[in-house]
Backbone:
């Protein structure tokens, strides 16, 4: 099984901040990585796939990078709608998710 | 705009079978894989399995012995059965659409809470 970790687990930030979340895989997943945003009571939303491809309709302030075992999700200028929990997911070998990073208001 | 909606009992007794249905609305359903994913406090997000309109399935190896999925394209629905449930199966269950032929998910339902308790 491929284990996914994320850091930090919680991140406090202000509107306008640049935010970076890190995701690590226990083995090489090439670029088979996706990022999701989840808000309470709402369906999770795909943001990034294939490590760096922006899903259609997702604002360009979201970006992803990385390959192999280390990946990042960056929000270039945090907006009020971005306070949420973010999950990474590998799909190189079946599917597994990271534990999540909650972005809350500083 | 394709939408997904989970439905089923919110309470299941230990040792019984959990049964959920996902209804697909607003778009074509016969060209995609459809998945079930759950989120529990103890194990985070966990992929359960996926099904194609032909009935072909892939299951998480850790759940394979207890999982069964089916699909009814005439009613735009697919279903999950998880047998011999325990309190560890208490979770929010999501249905989701696999993007293209891949293993990431470009559309999710809002999820439904299933509690296993006597």
Residues:
């Amino acid at each position: 099984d491929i284990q996914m970790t994320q850091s930090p687990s919680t991140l406090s930030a202000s509107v306008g901040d640049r935010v970076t979340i890190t995701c690590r895989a226990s083995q090489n997943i090439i670029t088979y990585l996706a990022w999701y945003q989840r808000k309470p009571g709402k369906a999770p939303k795909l943001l990034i796939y294939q490590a760096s491809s922006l899903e259609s309709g997702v604002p360009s302030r979201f970006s992803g990078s990385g390959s192999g075992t280390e990946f990042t999700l960056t929000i270039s200028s945090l907006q009020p709608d971005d306070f949420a929990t973010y999950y990474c997911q590998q799909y190189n070998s079946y599917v597994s998710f990271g534990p999540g990073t909650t972005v809350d208001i500083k | 705009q394709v939408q997904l909606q989970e439905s089923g009992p919110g309470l299941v007794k230990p040792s019984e079978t959990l049964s959920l249905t996902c209804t697909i609305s607003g778009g074509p359903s016969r060209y995609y894989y459809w998945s079930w994913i759950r989120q529990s406090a103890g194990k985070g997000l966990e992929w359960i399995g996926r099904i194609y309109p032909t009935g072909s399935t892939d299951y998480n190896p850790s759940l394979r012995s207890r999982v069964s999925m089916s699909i009814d394209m005439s009613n735009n629905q697919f279903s999950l059965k998880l047998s011999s449930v325990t309190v560890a199966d208490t979770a929010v269950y999501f249905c989701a659409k696999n993007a293209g032929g891949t293993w990431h998910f470009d559309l999710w339902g809002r999820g439904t809470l299933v509690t296993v308790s006597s």
